[in-house]
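Q: Convert this sequence to structure tokens.
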Amino acid sequence: MDIACPAQKGRPREFCVDQALTAALRVFWSKGYEGASLTDLTEAMGITRPSLYAAFGNKEALFKKAFDLYERDKLAYVREALDAPTAREVAERLLNGSLAMLTGDGSARGCLSVISSMPCGAEAESVRSEVLARRAVINRAIVERLERARAEGDLPAGVDPEGLSRMLAAMFQGLSIQHADGATKAQLQQLIDTSLALWPTAQ
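A:
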């Protein structure tokens, strides 16, 4: 993900903020929040620690800005999936979008939101809470879409949208973990196809 640096007004920085943020995202994505040291970050970003603090604040603030970029660019498929005409197509686009995101960048070892919400030390607890809160927003949007599908008769009346959303969340996490453990794209696709074959449909 290469980003061109826009022209800046006033006194120019010695580096491109957007490109540096993209580099920081790659580090967090490959090593997780706690695993990414300031040395890792500054070397990847091509800047000094004072420049990092001046442009982004501390490590936690940098992570949040990198996560904003992650949500905007890497999770765009979620917003698009919710516009699918049927609940099954929503699930299919979500799962295949997750697979494409996981396997499309060799620097990633899984879903950033999963990696960053794993049990962590006190230093990273606020980051974990932030990630969980953002994930809850996405989950709520999926639940609301599934509730609409049930009301429209696209899902069986007895289906619990909350439970179905949690099943999808478990699938996202499972794909991420299996990918990190070395599962091939074909194996992950087989898991998706099997799950979709069990998707509830209205009679």
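Residues 7-12 have pLDDT under 50 and may be disordered.
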